[in-house]
From TrEMBL, chains A, B:
This is Unannotated protein. Pfam families: HTH_3. One of its GO terms (molecular function) is DNA binding. PANTHER family: HTH-TYPE TRANSCRIPTIONAL REGULATOR, METHYLPHOSPHONATE SYNTHASE. One of its GO terms (cellular component) is cytosol. Residues 12-66 form the HTH cro/C1-type domain. Keywords: DNA-binding. It comes from freshwater metagenome. Gene3D superfamilies: lambda repressor-like DNA-binding domains.
Length: 98, 98
């Protein structure tokens, strides 16, 4: 079974690590317990809507971006290819702007 | 505060209504309590990952599609324009395939 909380946890952890923030820093900025955030990142606890909002703020990333990442990861697990938002390089020569 | 559960509830209800299914039918197919599904649709309860999986199955809609819809709705609330997955009609004349 594909579990959204696992993919969400990975997305949140990846974003945090990209920013070089520690669990403690994000937990503190989001006013959530460090142990809880750690469990969310590991996909062991569901993040409530309020927690997701606070963590997105702490990461300074729009929730819509986080959800789009989760959607893409879930889609890959479902075997659905994402629609690219730019023309892939190998097809670029098929397009010419006037 | 933008709450994901409200947007998710709207997306799930819209999908169900588009299919002409009743709450009872979806709850039964997903093996979730009718009252719980009703609260999820009204954005009053968080859907666990397991419930979301079961409801998506009952609606026969990929979870990634549901999450993409939620992301787009949240993005609109955040004031972020979604990236169109096709060229909007008004810009079509700017593109020519060779």
């Amino acid at each position: 079974m594909i579990l959204v909380r696992r993919e969400l946890g990975d997305v949140l952890r990846n974003l945090r690590l990209q920013q070089g923030q520690t669990l403690r820093q994000v937990a503190s900025r989001a006013s959530v317990a460090l142990g809880y955030l750690s469990e969310v990142e590991r996909g062991q606890k569901e993040a409530s809507s309020e927690i997701l909002y606070a963590v997105a703020e702490a990461l300074d990333v729009p929730m819509s971006t986080i959800l789009a990442d989760v959607s893409e990861r879930v889609g890959r697990l479902e075997g659905i290819m994402p629609i690219p938002d730019t023309v892939p390089a190998e097809f670029l020569s098929d397009f010419a702007t006037k």
